[in-house]
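Lab notebook, design round three. We kept the backbone fixed and only want residue identities now. Task for the bench partner: fill in a sequence for the structure below.
Input structure tokens:
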């Protein structure tokens, strides 16, 4: 079996204990965006696709709050073990891209095109309506926030997201609809005396 197909077949097991916000559906959406961006930007898809599939393997249920700032490095370390066991090629480059995908998990990695494409793909998924639902679910579990406060935290986080590639900036992920949804929830969920 081709190594890429072999790796893809392992994903359900690798993400069986993922946090609700970083589950396999998120990973597959990020891989979809990564491929779109990577093809247009000229990235090496042999690096980018495995990196997209493995970028959040360190995001486990009930540990997300403690791994948020280190998950890119932890994920790269886990990915390295998996890829080395499979005798996968371009392991260093794949792990470097994984380490670059998170602004909350800073590393000293030199920026690469594949890392930039993965960063943008991950951020694009966080700007969609689906991301609002994922965020609300995570905030309810982790911080016991009500829906209004969870929407406020989403809107604050959304303001910080800056896409890097022209391709990602041009992709429509309904960012305005996600913002409007949160604003409507806040308006309708807030009771004034």
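Proposed sequence:
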């Amino acid at each position: 079996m081709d190594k890429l197909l072999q790796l893809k077949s392992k994903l359900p097991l690798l993400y069986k204990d993922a946090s609700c916000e970083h589950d396999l559906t998120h990973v597959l959406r990020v891989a979809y965006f990564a491929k779109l961006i990577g093809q247009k930007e000229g990235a090496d898809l042999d690096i980018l696709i495995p990196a997209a599939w493995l970028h959040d393997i360190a995001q486990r249920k009930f540990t997300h709050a403690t791994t948020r700032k280190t998950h890119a490095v932890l994920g790269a370390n886990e990915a390295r073990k998996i890829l080395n066991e499979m005798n996968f090629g371009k392991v260093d480059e794949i792990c470097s891209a994984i380490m670059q995908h998170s602004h909350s998990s800073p590393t000293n990695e030199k920026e690469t095109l594949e890392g930039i494409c993965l960063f943008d793909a991950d951020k694009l998924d966080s700007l969609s309506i689906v991301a609002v639902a994922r965020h609300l679910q995570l905030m309810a579990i982790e911080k016991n926030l009500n829906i209004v406060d969870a929407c406020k935290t989403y809107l604050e986080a959304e303001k910080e997201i800056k896409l890097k590639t022209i391709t990602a900036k041009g992709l429509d992920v309904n960012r305005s609809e996600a913002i409007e949804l949160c604003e409507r929830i806040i308006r309708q969920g807030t009771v004034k005396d």
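Keep this in mind before ordering anything: The chain has a mean pLDDT of 89.
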